[in-house]
Every structure is written in C-alpha cells, then in structure tokens.
# Entry
Amino acid sequence: MCGGGGVIYGYSLDPSTGAPRLLQGSPFSSGVGALPEGMAAVPNSRLLYVADAKQIDAFCVDGSDGFPTPIPGSPFMSGSNPQLVVDPSGKFLYASDDDPPGGILAFTIGPNGALTPVVGSPFMIPGSSGPNSQPYGIVDTGKFVYTALSATNQIAGFSINTETGALTPVPESPFSTGGTPLGLALANNFLYNLNWQDTSISGYSIDANGVLTPVPGSPFLKNSTTTTLTVDPLGKYLFIGTSVGIGGYNIDPSTGALGPGLAGISNDGALWLTVVQLP
Amino acid sequence: MPMRASRVSTFFLLLPLLLAVVACGTNAGKNTACGNSGEGKTGGVNSGLEVLYSAPLSDLLNTSITATIDPNTGAFNTVLVNTVPFSVAAASQRWMAGFSTFPFRQRCAEEAE
# Structure
C-alpha cells in the first residue's frame, strides 16, 4: 500500500492554517507484511494504534519530531480488525472484527499503552444474519459502542461496562439501516452512517439505553453519489464527500435532522474526509 | 525538523483513507516517553481551529483538500489544495487486492485533544 507495503505517513499541522507538512523520515514503516488500515489515538497521550493484519500495532509518537516508535509488546495479536476506536476514557480500545461471524474485539489499555484482551472478547452480535456480518466502521460514545454491519445492513450497539470494558448488546440491537453500511459518525447524541449501496445517509438518535431511533427525514441524500462522511468535533455540522466535491449540512441540535446544505467545494471527489480541532 | 515552532504542535499520521491526530508539545530534544493516565478526555470544549482534510476520489489530479471551518456557520474559510503524498492508484490496487468486499475505505479519526 502507499507504494509498497506497511507504511504510515506522518505530518506536522500548521497551527494557524492546518496545512500538513510531511515529517522528516516519513513514511514510517509499520513492519514487514503489514497492512495498516484503521487508526486511533488515546486522548491526552501520545499513544497511537494502527489496525493491521490480525494484529494491532502500537506506537509512541515522539513529542518533538513526531517519530512513531513501537511500544514494548507491540504488535498485539487481535483479529481481522479493519477499524479501531479508543474509548473517550482512554481505558479501552475496541475494534470491528471481520472474522466470521463478526463481532467486536475489546482491549484494556495499560498505563504503558499495552493492550490486554477484555474477558469475553470478541463480543458476538446476537441476531445478525448470514455467515459473517462484516463489521466495519466503529464509534464509541463513552457509554455505547456501535459498529456498521456491512454484510447484513444493520448497526449493532453495545453498552460498555466502564469498569472492565466488557460489552453487552443494547436492547433491540442490531438495528436495520440502508444497503451496505460502512462509515459511522457521531454528533453528540446522534449517530449517522453512510450506506454505500444506497449512497444515502441514515441518522439516528441515541436514547439513554443506547437504542437507535431514526431522526426525522432519515435517510438523507439518497442517490447522492456520497462516498464518505464525517462530523465536526462539536457535532454541529455533517460533511460529505461526493464524486464531485465536498459538501456540508447543519445538524439540528434537537432532532438530529440535516438542514439545508452549506456552500461546498468542487473538486474531483473525496475518498475520505475527517475534521480535527487543533489544540 | 519540519516543525520546531514555538507554538503547540500537532502531528498526525495518515494512511490512504485513515487519519489519527496526536497532540504533542514542543519540548526541545527527543520526547519518547509515552504513558496513559487513563484520564481520557478532560476539560471543556476545545476552542482551537477546526480543519477538514480530504483525500481525492480519483488520481486524476492527485490533490487533497485542507479547509478551515467557520465554527459559527460551518462554511469553509480557507481552502488549500495539496499534492497527496501517496499514490492513490497504489492505494486502490491494494484495496482491491486485500479488501475487495468494499469499494473504498472509510476514514477513522480520533483526536487526542
């Protein structure tokens, strides 16, 4: 990948413009035979995790030059995990598990960043149909973990035991959604997912028990050539990539419905989007 | 080094479609000790600059977008076009070879602060 297997690109970000600049030494190797994919960082630390082939690579990012150094014990054995998320508490890491029948891998994050499987991991998805639900996108609200089941057109939800990291399915999970759900994005108490086959976006409110309920107007942007989505860190705007550019929508803070589109950017399409808030 | 600024610096590590951000200080010299306090996200809402990053859907122009966001309106304030540092074609080939189930990969981002 990226011109030859198992590398990670690193950049510094200009604090006033956000402009990226390639770090010295980048790209960095993530190991022979590596197939890095999803990434997640621990809040208030310099620990970085990378989903890899049957393992999770863990790095300490140097505070002065950004160089990622594997931490002791890395890589940590896991499953076929395409995507990762770190719990906002910094105590747990969850990964979508693409090994049949599909589930969620759960780890505790030690003081030095080492990963230890949570008792009961991987956590299976009750009620999903087919030989493999193929979980992909994964998000963590701090109370609940959701993953998009791309093969069964569902979203699975789990509540988090905040002491142990163990997962318990929320009532009514998994929830039906559009065709081939892939990406997930959180905006406060609302969850949005991109349905790749439908090229639509489904929006849900999250209740106190983790149950998902479609927001008014969902699904949105049907047949829109949407390829990717993301939400700003404050949960006010949802941005999409399409085959012809980038667009944005206001999120109604009370209902989660998407408002009129904002002015966009025209280009040759966006493969992925992400919004970050610089320190 | 690309970044020895006097201000708080931020590094992010990028895969073709995936991105994570790690906030770092500007201490002189190497700073390789890493720990996890387990405190997670603390404090109030960060008031820092919001920036959107994108990678291109095709390799026709091979450019990425960096756009700052007006926090009050969601509008894009400034838009920078950068040459992407990797071959999208190579990324696509890898995608097809390794993950033929899906036509693309979705970004995964976690912000450290």
Remarks:
- Chain A touches chain B through 106 residues (CB under 8 Å).
- The first strand of chain A starts at residue 7 and ends at 13.
